[in-house]
Amino acid sequence: MSPRPDPAAGGGSARAAAPGRAAATARAAAAPAHDGPLLDVRGLTVEYATARGSALAVDRVGFTLDRGEFLGIVGESGCGKSTLLFGIAQLLSPPASTTAGSVLFKGRDLVGMTDRQLADVRWSELSVVMQSAMNALNPVTTIGAQFRDVLRAHSFDTDIGTRSREVMELVGVDPVHLDSYPHQLSGGMRQRAMIAMALLFTPDLVIMDEPTSALDVVAQRSLMVQIKQLQRELGFAIIFVTHDMSLVSHFSDRLIVMYGGQIAELGATRTVFDTPRHPYSKGLLDAFPSIHGPRVPLLGIPGSPPDLADLPTGCRFAARCPQAMPSCAATAPELYQVEQVRVRCLLHAHEEVTA
């Protein structure tokens, strides 16, 4: 048995990583050629049917994701982050439904696929680690048995034990715990086991909805370093939803700031942190403590997010915005392209770069 990697040092098991890379290479060779982005979300709209009418949880969201890219998504609770992930993976269930848009994954539109077609894509090419996933493990079945069920469901019948041990080593958990039940593992180990399960087929895209939310700060850092190292070794792309600004500031390449079911700002993570253009982005950063520079008081954002079943006519942030103008209450801003950033704010409408 090879030694476990040190998460803090970013080490991984070269022996375990090699079969994953080989599987990804073989799958890429067999798949139809696709020269565009790995993921291309276009005008995705998700609505919830409620007693008060339709609640617009995701409103015409669009972005692209390249292979090997780490995309962070941040925003307050109720802004549509998790619903967006469910919409991308087509895991929505009533009363939620996709009402418009497309999700092109490797050139194929996931929206409108049958359950059977989606089952062929999930796990093998696209994996999802949802919020509190460490509590989603079957409590009466060993970790190894759960891995075995996933592998057999995708007709992986050879070397199941070997592959299970490989992915456990990848995430820094001793393979001996394949014989353990979930309650015998710590919270961090359960979360790592779920991530290992998501990597069983070395997918091209891993979607993560706050995978570190139930962990302490030390465990969060260790897990994030491990995830980033695995991404470098295996080459998969990540969409990562979190409330923790410090996590995305250190690990993501690009950042989406969501508000009221829409993209408020989208750009390179460092650019958004250094020069936030949307007042909401500035508000989030002002509420986030920094260990650098002079001490400054933390500021909250007054008010509450909008009711998605009764959205305002103009800008959805206007009622809480310290820079709101009279036009903001009546005019809904578009997502303007300003230099390398897209921002949904009338303050920047005149700066938009046109093709």
From TrEMBL:
<keyword id="KW-0547">Nucleotide-binding</keyword>
<dbReference type="InterPro" id="IPR017871">
    <property type="entry name" value="ABC_transporter-like_CS"/>
</dbReference>
<keyword id="KW-0813">Transport</keyword>
<dbReference type="InterPro" id="IPR003593">
    <property type="entry name" value="AAA+_ATPase"/>
</dbReference>
<dbReference type="InterPro" id="IPR013563">
    <property type="entry name" value="Oligopep_ABC_C"/>
</dbReference>
<dbReference type="Pfam" id="PF00005">
    <property type="entry name" value="ABC_tran"/>
</dbReference>
<feature type="domain" description="ABC transporter">
    <location>
        <begin position="41"/>
        <end position="285"/>
    </location>
</feature>
<dbReference type="GO" id="GO:0005524">
    <property type="term" value="F:ATP binding"/>
</dbReference>
<keyword id="KW-0067">ATP-binding</keyword>
<dbReference type="InterPro" id="IPR003439">
    <property type="entry name" value="ABC_transporter-like_ATP-bd"/>
</dbReference>
<dbReference type="Pfam" id="PF08352">
    <property type="entry name" value="oligo_HPY"/>
</dbReference>
<dbReference type="InterPro" id="IPR027417">
    <property type="entry name" value="P-loop_NTPase"/>
</dbReference>
<protein>
    <submittedName>
        <fullName>ABC transporter ATP-binding protein</fullName>
    </submittedName>
</protein>
